[in-house]
Amino acid sequence: MKVKSIQTYILRAPLGDERFYSSQCSFPERNSLIVKIETEDGIIGWGEGGQYGPPEPVAAVVKHVLTPKLMNKTLQSPIKVFEQNYADTRDFGQKGTYIEALSAVDIALWDIYGQMLNKPVHSLIGGSFRESIFAYATGCYYRGEDVLNYKASLPKLAKEARSYVDAGFQMLKMKVGLLSIEEDIERVKTIREAIGPNTSLLVDCNHAYNAFTAVKMAKELEKFNVMWLEEPVVPEDRMGYREVRSSTNIPIAGGECEFTRFGFRDLFLGGCVDIAQPDICVSGGFSEWMKIQALASSFGVTVIPHVWGSGIALSAALHVLASIPPSPHTANTVPLQNEPIVEYDRNPNPLRDELLKTPITLQKGKVLVPQHPGLGIEVNLDAISKYGSEF
What region holds the Mandelate racemase/muconate lactonizing enzyme C-terminal domain (predicted)? Predict the structure, then answer.
């Protein structure tokens, strides 16, 4: 079976008045890079990358570097393709744009591989331990009025947080880091009171702090039974991660800005995280995921993939989550304690909600794992035409 064509699409969905903010930037749009690979036998595989920054550089790598290596070539196993492409580009592409491009291609090849074998991807990367995944709501970002007059926005924040509980979520992740510690703690207090003591609260800093400030923030957060503190310091600051982790009883999460097994090896050896968060569309696709997961299990680190993209990215995350063994194994499964969970962003995301002909949706606080061959999805070409164009 040979590769007939490789197409890349840049997608952008403007959010208008619904834009939101993290500690680092505003989000005026949803954007991503979608890769379509078709074989001579008519099998089509879909992949995704380029969802963090501008997608054009990632698309350029796929088009000008990786496509010539694959066109009209007989398909090998996705792992073999990844290893060869990584070896060919490692001198200048160990992190960032090149790995995102490799990730997008890898996901598409696994989609094809699964369809060739008539198996869903999760059955090929370790087998399925579950058919549905507990979801946590990512929300409670900053809106415009939070910066100008955050006190006035607290009632709206409480209403938003409560809406997630009413929708069936048992877990909620909120943002901190844009305001002062004192102001953000008031936001945390507001949300904790709104959701009650039985809903798990996760806090994401988006690396807003230095180690000293992060420790101070963690001490304040301990009062609110926070179940993890995400990206407390910048991803390069391994010593800062260790300092924060050793100074609090809150588990430390991180890794959405890390790449390949080599980057995660350094996180684990450094004792930096309790919870690793590789993004399948960023860190190396399914081929690297299996290696990262194996490393994490040997260090006793929980793996909860980061999800930020279209329905393709969410589908990829569900396949890897299905393949994670309960850790530790017990007779009962408890979300996060020994059972993986999936991130479900509650901000507007047309690329997730419209790109698939059958959208991936919530059912009683869980998301079903696709069971059809490959990724188990069918892409809506009208949505690609609506939000993007071929690169």
Answer: 154-251
Strands 171-175, 302-303: parallel, antiparallel or unpaired by DSSP? Answer: unpaired
- Per-residue pLDDT, averaged over 155-181, amounts to 96
pTM score of the predicted model: 0.96
> In angstroms, rounded to a whole number, what is the distance separating the alpha carbons of residues 289 and 122?
12
Q: What is the pLDDT of residues 9-48, one digit of tens each?
A: 999 999 998 989 899 988 999 999 999 999 999 999 999 9
Closest CA to 66 of 107, 110, 102, 109: 102
Q: Which domains does the chain have, with CATH numbers?
A: 3-118+380-390 (3.30.390.10), 124-368 (3.20.20.120)
Inter-axis angle of helices 78-89 and 97-117, to 10 degrees?
A: 160
pLDDT tens-digit series, residues 332-346: 778 877 889 999 999
Strands 132-138 and 171-175: parallel
pLDDT reported for residue 215: 98
User: Is 306 assigned a catalytic role?
Assistant: yes
Residue 143 pLDDT grade (very low, low, confident, very high; cuts 50, 70, 90): confident
**Rounded distance between C-alpha atoms, residue 26 and residue 156, angstroms:** 19
Catalytic residue among 122, 207, 306, 319: 306
| End-to-end Cα spacing for the chain | 25
Instruction: Find out whether the peptide bond into 197 is cis, omega within 30 degrees of 0.
Output: no
User: How far apart (Å, rounded) are the C-alpha atoms in residues 372 and 369?
Assistant: 9
